[in-house]
Amino acid sequence: MNGAWMAAKLLRAAATLLLAVTVVFIVLRLAGDPAEILFGDNVGEESLIRYRALWGLDQPLGVQYLLYLRSLLLGDFGLSSQSGASAWQLMMGRLPYTLQLGGVSLLLAVLIGIPAGVAAALARGSLTDRVVMLAAVSSFCIPNFVLGVVLILVFAEQFGWLPSHGTGGIWHLVLPALTLGTGWAGVLARFARSAMLEVLGQPYIRGARASGLTEGRVRWRHALPNAAIPLVTILGFMVGGLVAGAIVTESIFAWPGVGRLLVDSVKLRDLAVVQAIVLMVAATMVAANLVVDVLSAWLNPRLPAATGA
Amino acid sequence: MMPTRRQLGIVPIIAAAALTPGTAAAQAPRVLNIGVNRVSVGAEPAFDGGIHQAKVVGEMFENLLDVDYVTPGRFKPVLAERWSRVDGRTVDFHLRRGVTFHNGDELTAEDVAFTFGPERLLNADAPTRGELGRHMGPIERVEAVDRYTARAVMRGDNPVIEALFTQRPAAIINRRAYLAAGSFEAWMRASVGTGPYRLRELTPGRHVILDLHGAYWGAKPHFERLVFQVIPEVSTRISGVIAGSLDIAADIPVDQLRRVQGRREARAVGGPVNNMRAIYLSRRDNPLMRDVALRRALGLAIDRQRITRALWGGHPSVPEGMQWPTMGAMRITDRDWPHAATFDPDEARRQLATSAYRGEALNWTLMNNYYINEVATAEALVEMWRAVGINVRLTVVENRAQVNTAPLDIRNTSMDYDGFPDPFPILGQFGRGGFVSSIHRWWQNDEVDRLGDEMMGSTDPAVRKAAWRRILRIIEWDDPAVFALHTTAAFHIARSDLTWTPANSEWPMMQLATARR
Description:
The complex is a heterodimer of chains A (309) and B (517). Chain A is mainly alpha-helical and 309 residues long. Chain A has helices spanning 3-30, 34-38, 45-54, 61-73, 87-122, 127-141, 144-158, 171-200, 203-210, 215-240, 242-245, 247-252, 258-267, 271-299, 304-307. In chain A, helix 5 crosses helix 8 (171-200) and helix 7 packs across helix 8. Chain B has 3 domains: 8-16 and 29-60 and 179-272 and 489-514, Periplasmic binding protein-like II (D-Maltodextrin-Binding Protein, domain 2), CATH 3.40.190; 65-175, Dipeptide-binding Protein, Domain 1 (Dipeptide-binding Protein, domain 1, Alpha-Beta Complex), CATH 3.90.76; 276-488, Dipeptide-binding Protein, domain 3, CATH 3.10.105. Helix content of chain B is 28%, strand content 22%. At the A-B interface, helix 2, helix 3, helix 5, helix 7 and helix 13 of A face helix 2, helix 8 and helix 13 of B.
């Protein structure tokens, strides 16, 4: 892995972040005056003018944008126009909840999805394969807002086994994590199966078998690491989209994560908070992609990143 | 050694335990858990006009007097044990003795004067002026006469001074706590009133926790703590009540009430409230809408009974035009014109035939169910208009700013009249300086401006009623500005073992201090 490759990646990451911030900045300001959204209908123009001046919304868009970029470079994400609190602190107050939900969901997805996909590949064409694939397709076809409500109806309302909403203990995590993790597990199972099948058909696998290695050693030492390359890419996307992907689930289960903060802030045009969250989501995506590139290079030394080509 | 499957299975649980943010401390006994769709960023009665805010501040703050919901058309004493008119523009409020704020201070006339003072409310730069302070416009000043007497002076003679003091921004706050907070933002998170519950914790987007005010002057509430939990999803709120983790699920659409029909754990509560859905007719953007006959036809074409049956289970009623039952002596019962909720499609067609309208599209921009059943109602109205030959183009947008900047011929509204024994809230819409006539300039009528001044400047019942009669005729028929749809209903789902009846007002809606288990 060479320095030029890494420098190019970092430069591209910075450009991506700038683009994301710029697009969000412009779109939010074109989609409605925050002053009119914040106040009720019964507000006179004088109050709206005062509010716009207070938050700098009366300045030309270009000036607002440059001021915003300068603040960002100084590490200042601005204040929430709703509460006056720091946008950064508001976001960081919610982040542990999103990481908790996303982390556990991802872990469930990995622990269920990858073994299921590998098992299906190894038993290709069998009943096991069909059952696993049917379950996988079903799981990512069911939208989270349907699965979440069904799980609540069954496990909270009907049986009373699990809490329907909120935080407070490990049991509160079960239903939202299942809702979020089930779809991901289905995706991973599908990818794991196809990746494994592709690798098992490669000449070097036949070579390994011909050299007298046990079938277990062929599968786990030679096939699986090679099949892991596309899975790492998919996992990178999942980690990157962890915040955005949890919005629906967080709303259904009243989980106080970043996704819900984002929805509320967009509704109220709390510009500083929306921009801080979008920047964080974009940064997570970019970072996840970087990690995937590095991991892929480590897993497959022939890739350009590893060779410096 | 490779981990076993059982060992792997507990990994998520261990991870979750490690990542679990701090759990709440053990709750006090007798906690009432309420699921709401939203809470505000602060608990200040004159900030945020939403119904979600009313639920919280309605338990924390009290007014000098309130609308008497038991005896419609009257006021009842709250923090003022009595009040007396000094002249046409002045009222003395005699405070109840021994009332204490949540911080232990005794309620005095200084607190009342400060509540309406320039630092907080009645000043163009006051932090609450923008949204709700404007409702207090007729008040010139409030001053302390002695420790227990506060004097309110209006800008001119005013027949409805008492009604002003029942409104939400007129709830009394503690002067010392406000000044000690240092900033308005800090005050909103540490606000202090005299109500049965005091603020314990406010986390925007998550919850508000109120604790019992131990020295409350009124009847002691049963519950020692109220927890308002934000649960945006209606279905989850209902499940919370059925499963027992919530006592009340607030703001439930009518079509969801059937989920608790026949269940022993939960029941539906609520019913009609003092609020009316109506449609504004704007003549600001479209020359066609200046045609009186077209505007009349728009109102006459609507079958309101069908809407209340189909979308509201028949709970709301169709009002008698732009009036409400508690208007008392001011109510006009002998109209010689069709009132603003008349359904007469034949007359609508006749009116249309006399107009210059030839099927051009009229614009109606609205938000996606900002009000309950908003889009479904709009779609029904569009079809009813089509049936008489009126073409209305419906556009759904995301926020209020987009509604207000779009070309506008028709606009829906929700009008809160809160049981007032007087039609003066109508002037806040259509009179001089009103929301419709001055702020948005959708419709304005010089005669209504003049008659409104006359009505609000006189204490002679005959003069006032004559002015109101003419205003009503103008806004309903001579120069239609609005037509009524139906009254509104608000429903909640509560645990069956909870004894609780919410008020039919918009504020305070919940009356949780009266709830018992």
